[in-house]
Give the backbone structure.
Amino acid sequence: MITIKGLSKTFHVAKRSSGMKEAVKALFHREYTAVEALKDISFTINPGEIVGYIGPNGAGKSTTIKVMSGILVPDGGICSIMGFTPWQNRVAYVKHIGVVFGQRSQLWWDVPVIDSFELLRDIYDVPEQEYRSNLALLTETLDLKDIIQTPVRQLSLGQRMRCEIAASLLHSPSVLFLDEPTIGLDAVSKIAVRRFIRTINEEKGVTVILTTHDMNDIEALAQRIILIGKGRLLFDGSLDAIRSRFGTHKTLTIVYRNQPEPLQIAGAVVESWSPERAVLRVDTEQAVISDVLIDLSKQVELLDVAIDTQPIEDLIVQLYKEHQI
Amino acid sequence: MRLYWKYVVILFKSQMQYRASFWLLALGQFLVPFSVFAGLYFLFERFEQIEGWQFHEVALCFAVIHMSFSLSECFARGFDNFSGMVANAEFDRVLVRPRGTIIQVLGSKFEFTRAGRLVQSLLVLAWAVSRLPVEWTLLKAVTLMLMVISGTFIFTGIFILAATLCFWTVQGLEIVNIFTDGGRQMAQYPLQIYRKWVTRFFTFIIPFGCVNYLPLLYILDKAPGNEWLYMLAPLAGIVFILPCLFVWRIGVRHYRSTGS
């Protein structure tokens, strides 16, 4: 479905230096530095996948999305999406994709949402029947019935985002690019958006490429993660693969009857301790949880035990650290 | 074309959300050129004629160029405002839609309040036509229409050129107003009254003279030589848009390779 090989892109960015003198100088003469936004990026994505495309700010995420959606022409490399090269044949290609930029609206601000939808129908030349059935499906699954007659400027951010996503699906695209779709949304809206993305992926088989900084999005949606940093591809694999690589730690929070002596448990690191409560970290490759618990119950009278896996957020931070980005 | 109309409709609906502001702006647009026109009137009251041109003849010239200007400001406003589209990356959105960039940018904004200016120049036109001692024929009426239309094309062309520059500068360039506002001010008088190089510049580089001065000679029966040539001169204004469109394409290509 999507094949990317050796994609690279260099930007020439004007050097900025401080000071009034330098600023005046820059009016007449500018020095440019080459910034390699993408260096030899390669991956393939199969139809029906949901891929989380992540990386810190400035890693090259947006550049990749722009190349894949036909906005930018790369310096080198191959990108083939459904047989199209996005930057050639732009008009024919973009009929098959939907793009949502979380921070920018594609709706017309002052008119009811339905008017925007109808104009998009005309822009994309969607046949009337297809438009009707898509609209019905989207209205129902995104619960738009009550807001569709409201001008966009009167919608809340969460309502607007639901409309944005609906707007990008009216022409039944096969690939959907979502650039930070949950940015700034409240918890309820986030969950609604995630559930919807999953629904259209399952029911219509839409391939979804999603950039986000919210690891809960990734956890809820993506079976696969592609991580880039400083323009390089650093990791491509499933969430489970990351878990088994970094997520071998469990956190044990225990509460017990008063115990003035610090605990000494084989195979566990005591992270914090008080006479009533302690937090232990257990590396499951070094020790078995049940052994640790048996050991514990010999030393103290346990009142409560909570075992937590590392949150995915921490794993990603570890991954960033490992690659020094 | 059908799509263009849809853009007009949706933006008109948007504009109607702010009715008071619409009427006030339109009224302003109606009144401002009146003060310019009043200046013209007093000028002729004092001097009676300029280089052999009578007041009503110049008024016709004035009306045509102001009609063209208000039409292009209304319908090509998207290009006039294009720096904003580049600065906030709205143009990326244009590129992910399966339509040409020109029609989408044209459709991004209309300035309906320019109707005020249009009505004002229509009044001046009607008045000038009724006072001129000219025998009107169908061909002359067609020429007059052609003048307005191709004037609109020229202003639109300049807006497109200015917009194209934004691909490199991001910010809009005030300097381009020399050619839009400046061109309007120049071309509201018959070009003959200016120095030779000014006349040449506005005939062969930016062909305002072809939409205004030359066909005016035909309408006023002042044309020396072949009348057809003078009558069809406005076509040059329509041709003017072709190189502008070509330059636009270069600009879009530049944008897509630099992303800024």
Observations:
- Chain A touches chain B through 33 residues (CB under 8 Å).
